[in-house]
């Protein structure tokens, strides 16, 4: 009888220890489940933020691409202006040459009119007016040439800056593209992590439920 009582006491103590351990395990599982739940929320928030960052990166990439196109258009326009200025300079040189030749012809005409005496007086007046007109044309051509030279310098500087801007914008587009790809990878990894943590949380909750029973 004593041995049976002793055995019963040991069994009772064992059950008490088992019950206590089970309660401790259940408590630990509850804490783990709560922690996993909080972690799951945090990871989901991170995934949402990553998705928003990915969308922002896509928008920035589009803006950078448009900026690159605009800069390229500006560079093309500056180049066209430079070419037009060059053609205008050529035309101005022709006008200057014509004015010079006209001035010589008018001078020769004035000499011939002087030789003709009274009969060439009217022609001499016309020759003088032609010389005056030729002189004014030459002066105007010179002023135009100066303006074109100044304009060409500005266009050249602008073209250089535009060319650098094109290169810079291309680098920006490339960098933003790499950033966008990286953010997309982070987004995918965060989503996968969120799913994994959610599954672990579900498993812990199920284990807690079994332990409580």
TrEMBL record:
Record-level Gene Ontology MF annotations: transmembrane signaling receptor activity
UniProt key word Zinc: no
This protein's UniProt keywords: Chemotaxis, Methylation, Transducer
Annotated Methyl-accepting transducer domain residues: 1-213
Alphabetical list of SMART domains matching this protein: MA
InterPro entries: Chemotax_Me-accpt_rcpt (IPR004090), MCP_chemotaxis (IPR051310), MCPsignal_dom (IPR004089)
SUPFAM superfamilies for this protein: Methyl-accepting chemotaxis protein (MCP) signaling domain
GO biological process, one term: chemotaxis
Pfam families (UniProt xref): MCPsignal
Domain of life: Bacteria
GO CC, any one term: plasma membrane
Keyword Hydrolase: no
Family according to the record: Belongs to the methyl-accepting chemotaxis (MCP) protein family.
The protein's name: Methyl-accepting chemotaxis protein
Organism of this sequence: Enterobacter agglomerans
């Amino acid at each position: 009888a004593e041995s049976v009582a002793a055995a019963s006491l040991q069994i009772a103590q064992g059950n008490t220890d088992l019950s206590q351990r089970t309660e401790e395990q259940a408590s630990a599982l509850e804490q783990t489940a709560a922690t996993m739940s909080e972690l799951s929320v945090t990871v989901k928030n991170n995934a949402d933020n990553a998705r928003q960052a990915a969308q922002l990166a896509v928008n920035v990439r589009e803006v950078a691409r448009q900026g690159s196109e605009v800069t390229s258009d500006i560079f093309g326009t500056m180049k066209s202006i430079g070419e037009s200025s060059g053609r205008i300079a050529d035309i101005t040189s022709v006008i200057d040459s014509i004015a010079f030749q006209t001035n010589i012809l008018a001078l020769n005409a004035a000499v011939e009119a002087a030789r003709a005496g009274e009969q060439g007086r009217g022609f001499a007046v016309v020759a003088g007016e032609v010389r005056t007109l030729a002189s004014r044309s030459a002066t105007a051509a010179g002023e135009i040439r100066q303006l074109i030279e100044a304009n060409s310098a500005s266009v050249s500087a602008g073209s250089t800056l535009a060319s650098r801007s094109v290169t810079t914008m291309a680098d920006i587009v490339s960098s933003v593209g790499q950033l966008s790809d990286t953010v997309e990878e982070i987004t995918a990894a965060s989503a996968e992590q969120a799913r994994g943590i959610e599954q672990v949380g579900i498993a812990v909750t199920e284990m807690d439920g079994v332990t409580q029973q």
